[in-house]
Amino acid sequence: MCGIFGYIGKREALPFILEGLKKLEYRGYDSAGVSTIQHGKIFLNKSCGKIARLEEVLEARPIGGSIGIGHTRWATHGKPSDENSHPHSDCSDQITVVHNGIIENYLELRRQLAEEGHKFTSATDTEVIAHLIEKYFKETGSLETAVRKTLNAIDGSYALGVISEHEPDKLIAARKGSPLLIGIEEDETFIASDISALIKYTSRVIYLNDYELAVITENDIVIKDRDGKTLKKNISFISWDPESAEKCGYTHFMLKEIHEQPNAIRKTIEGRISAESANIHFDELNLTEKEIKNINRVVFTACGTSWHAALVGEYLIEQMVKLPAEVEYAAEFRYRHPVIDDKTLVIAISQSGETADTLAAAWEAKSLGAKVISICNVVGSTLARDSHGVIYTQAGPEIGVASTKAFTTQLSVIYLLTLLLARTKGTLTGAEIKNYIHDLIELPGKIEQVLAREHEIEKIAQKYYLSNNALFLGRGKGFPIALEGALKLKEISYIHAEGYPAAEMKHGPIALIDQNMPVVVLAMTGKRYEKILGNIEEVKARGGQVIAIANEGDNYIQEKADEVFYLPKSPIAVSPILAVIPLQLLAYYIAVKRGCHIDQPRNLAKSVTVE
Ligand code: M6R
């Protein structure tokens, strides 16, 4: 939520900042701004709207300088407007600040500062930071000390970038609870909210930890802890290919990412499995055989799409490992005194690894003595670093706000982790595990077959894109996929959509069904196929329009449904990963036909780093 990008070096800062902000725009896109220092003077331009709007403003009033900070906003305090856009300034316009996070005690601080004579121009929580730095600079004459004193005065979360005319050769960065990275190149340094904005410029980064503050000059980076003690930090290397953060000819990142799924799954499983020996290995899992044998319960925690992945995990763990498994919304889990202990394995799932509620849930679980394993896509993210063990999905950067390849790679990891637990606990035989591994290896090829027929989905989208509502039904592992299909549709097309276990339809949602209600039914063959057919009959009897996702060879379903999309035959345990692909495409093509902002849907942000 909110993206920060900063530059200090020998070249003009503005092009770097704008390019960096564009890469971060998926984190928030209701307003944007930049501030630079040129010849010792601060310059600032900001505007409501997307970065393209800021570029127009900058064309009319260009700003120069080789040091600067920029911000793309997802509003929390104060509506999107020019005044509420970042960077924010102090009374004398000599200090500018960009901030991601929430200052919880800002009202009290604002009142105190106003009483002391500070003039506020926005409704944001962030502006108090600029005024506090102003106040403490007056007292101490040091920008670094002023920022440190400010950080001690504020409660809440922040990633910060600060520049000032008082010390025009410095960029100060700090973090607590919101991500911030420092990218290093010869003669230039960058700060950014995430890796995707940096990979074009460098592969060397330093992850700032909570309560760390960096003082960056053209030739030096000094990182200190909250007491001002200098720290020695490791430089990490990013392996993501810069192309992976570009559209590469696709109209939208979402479509590109849908198409990347076969290879993303291949990368996620490669090097971790041996179909011959039924062996599964995760480098950073950090769980011994003894610890696995000790586990008597699995609790998944996550938000949004990652929560749907967890629901599939619940089915898999119960079925294959024979352990009780539960799924908790991270935001609920963190506050409800969960009953867990050192025999509970908590699996926290997050694409970004920065979702505030998921982080808090993982910390809560750790404090209660559970082993916490995270499934993350972003290497070095807070969740990955704060868990006992981590399994990285190898999806590469996911830029589209609607999660697609992160979901299917999460499912692939959960599937393999389940097999690993089952092998260690002895609930599956070696031969069974070999078969399951084989099914996963075959899956990317089947996804490619589905993607090759995306025109069929586009045709279905053409017929239904003007609908106002949609229902998604599934049973068993098809139920979480119904939820995910509904979430994809609602978040990018703004059609009201609900996912339900098919049997629940009779208990209420059936009242909604009429000729204007498309009902997407996951009707793959399996144990509950007959029951799903029964649900389709119930929809048809009330005039509903049925779009069935079925297995190839099922000619019978054509007589029942209005539309059928056939999936290549696949074993039931991997079928959720395959079945979600047509639903992602359906949401995509419906949203395109409705003229929606596919990669940046309204009101959303990719990474929800606030509660
Ligand atoms: O980064 P995370 O996986 O923790 O994000 C969780 C949700 O915010 C995310 O999955 C969200 O629901 C997506 N927009 C769904 O497409």
TrEMBL record:
Q: Which InterPro entries match?
A: GATase_2_dom, GFAT, GFAT_N, GlmS/AgaS_SIS, GlmS/FrlB_SIS, Ntn_hydrolases_N, SIS_dom, SIS_dom_sf
SIS domain: which residues? 288-427, 460-601
CDD domains reported for this sequence: GFAT, SIS_GlmS_GlmD_1, SIS_GlmS_GlmD_2
Per UniProt, the keywords (alphabetical) are: Aminotransferase, Cytoplasm, Glutamine amidotransferase, Membrane, Repeat, Transferase, Transmembrane, Transmembrane helix
Location in the cell: Cytoplasm
Q: Where is the active site?
A: 2 (nucleophile), 606 (for fru-6p isomerization activity)
What residue stretches are annotated with the Glutamine amidotransferase type-2 domain?
A: 2-219
- What Gene Ontology cellular component terms go with this record? cytosol
List, alphabetically, the PANTHER family matched: GLUCOSAMINE--FRUCTOSE-6-PHOSPHATE AMINOTRANSFERASE, ISOMERIZING, GLUTAMINE--FRUCTOSE-6-PHOSPHATE TRANSAMINASE (ISOMERIZING)
The protein's job, in short, is: Catalyzes the first step in hexosamine metabolism, converting fructose-6P into glucosamine-6P using glutamine as a nitrogen source.
Write down what this protein is called: Glutamine--fructose-6-phosphate aminotransferase [isomerizing]
UniProt lists the gene as: glmS
